[in-house]
Amino acid sequence: MDPTPESRRGLPEPDPAGAAHSNAVAQHVRDRIAAAGGSISFAEFMHEVLYAPSLGYYSAGASKLGAAGDFVTAPEISPLFGRIVACQAASVLEQLDGGDILEPGAGSGALAISILTKLAELDQLPERYLILEVSADLKERQETRLRREIPQFMERVSWISQLPEKFCGVVIANEVADAIPVERFRIDGGNVMQARIGIADDSIAWCFSAAPDYLEAAVRDIEADIGHQLADGYESEVSPALAGWIGDLSSSMELGLILLIDYGVTRSEYYAPDRHSGWLRCHFRHHAHNDPLILPGIQDLTAWVDFSLVAAAANNMKVAGYITQAHFLMNGGLEAELGDFPSLPLKQQIELSGQVKILTLPAEMGENFKCIGLTCGDINVPPAFETTDRAHLL
Ligand SMILES: C[S@@+](CC[C@H](N)C(=O)[O-])C[C@H]1O[C@@H](n2cnc3c(N)ncnc32)[C@H](O)[C@@H]1O
Predict the structure, then answer these.
(1) CB of 241 shorter than 6 A to ligand 1
(2) Residue 51 CB burial class (10 angstroms; 0-12, 13-18, ≥19)
(3) pTM above 0.90, yes or no
(4) Which CATH architecture does the domain made up of 74-179+243-267+305-393 adopt?
């Protein structure tokens, strides 16, 4: 492993197998840097440490989600989350008189299980439940878990390796957008510099060079949108890959809804003067920190989402709503899901209250996580978006 930097303080030590794996990933990154002539863009670095075949965080075999992993997502916390997402999907599938569900980045499969279970209760199962998973390891884990827990629905479930050309139904992506590689930049003397990853003092290290045209243009667009120039020294991220991903998703939509849930903010919040260090977030063994260069391949590396970029990248789609996760859940049927709560045994009441708190409290996931709904065609807005919409802020 590279020498232990200050940012490793307070983090648990990786176990020997994890440390050996991280060394292999670091060597892979060094090889890429050497092959590229001395440095690679941060987006390339993020792609390699997360997705390099059999090495990257999402491609290698370690547990990532849940108590034994590095972080917990809403569907892992409680099936209530997926059940409420399912109610929104049902309201669209009903209007379509059929249609499919597409879940990109299905993680452990927890969301698919709660969605399909609830849709069966509502008698609104999709014709097909398609999973688009870029990680071969996660695909295998998802398939094993779904076969074990919901064998009755497996004839509808299949894994695809690229977006369907034409899609009619509901796309559901929870915490996928934050895992798409971002570019990082710094303003230096009014110029846009690209953050790159090279080698300094024999360690993987940041370096900066003049931004390529596409990055310079993206930053100048941001400045035009927020109405002022970013200050000297300002550092942040921008995600051309996320814009491309949303563009591809929306181009394949013929009719239906895209539901995207993630931690993120509007563009003016993303590039606010006080956010001068950007929005990168790393997770290792349930510790969050912001040094993406440590623990390569064994920590999750994410960036908060600029939801204004998401809305703008969705060609030919309308924003049905943009709300906090707390409002999404409360508008979308949380109370109904807890309907027989008082008659439940005390232990179960305590468990459920704990789950609801994590999903909805502002200091937990309630405020930082947002949900955006994008519709294509003549689709009525799902119940979760009927009130408390903040789309005008995008
Ligand atoms: C943080 S996990 C979230 C998993 C799951 N959605 C959940 O909520 O528990 C990110 C997931 O996105 C997947 N992913 C990343 N980029 C993707 C892409 N371009 N298309 C589909 N899946 C992607 C990862 O492999 C992983 O399964």
Answers:
(1) no
(2) middle
(3) yes
(4) 3-Layer(aba) Sandwich (3.40)
